[in-house]
Automatic annotation (TrEMBL):
Natural source organism: Molorchus minor
Transmembrane helix keyword on record: no
Keyword Chloroplast: no
Cofactor or coenzyme needed: Mg(2+)
Location(s), subcellular: Nucleus
Lineage top rank: taxon: Eukaryota
Protein name: Crossover junction endonuclease EME1
Entry-linked PANTHER family: CROSSOVER JUNCTION ENDONUCLEASE MMS4 (PTHR21077:SF5), EME1 PROTEIN (PTHR21077)
Amino acid sequence: MPTIEDLSIKTKEFKENNFLLIMDLKEFASLVHNNSLTSHLHEVLALTLSKQLTVAILGADKPKPDQDLAITQAQIFTKSYFRFTKKEEDLATLLMELTKAVAQIPYKLKQEEKYMLHSEYFNDFNKDNVKVDKNGNGLSRLWHQMFTMFPLVRLETAETIAAAYPTPSALFKAYEACTTEERRVVGQFGCPSG
């Protein structure tokens, strides 16, 4: 990565902690069938020296029910994250999302450092706090700000969610109305019909 030091451009190497492993559905199914998915991911982590592993499975939009246990074990023991992509276009979208997330890491770390400097959050002490008066004015803005604390949630996304679920209790009721299958889907926020 090019950096500026002493008014000249220098090249520095930085170790990347994030790694994307792309598997086709056939290879993934074989590893699950042979009970070797977790050990395979341990080998990948050892080779790459990465700390965060995302596994993209190309060829299906969700796992089969008999694959859930293997995925859960792999996630627990390797701290990996699985995404299923049906088509190459879905994989390209995932790659774009991951690239953006990795690019935003330095900014988010600076933001986290900024907030860690303030051990307590008082209304007038931190300019980023939302003031809520006794009449409830400011609750809507606070609800929006709560969503933006999640990784990859921008203001537009927070506004869309808050428009659909104007209060925490509305979101909770929609979640309670979800079926068990809908709750199981990783990354799904609320029910599609909610």
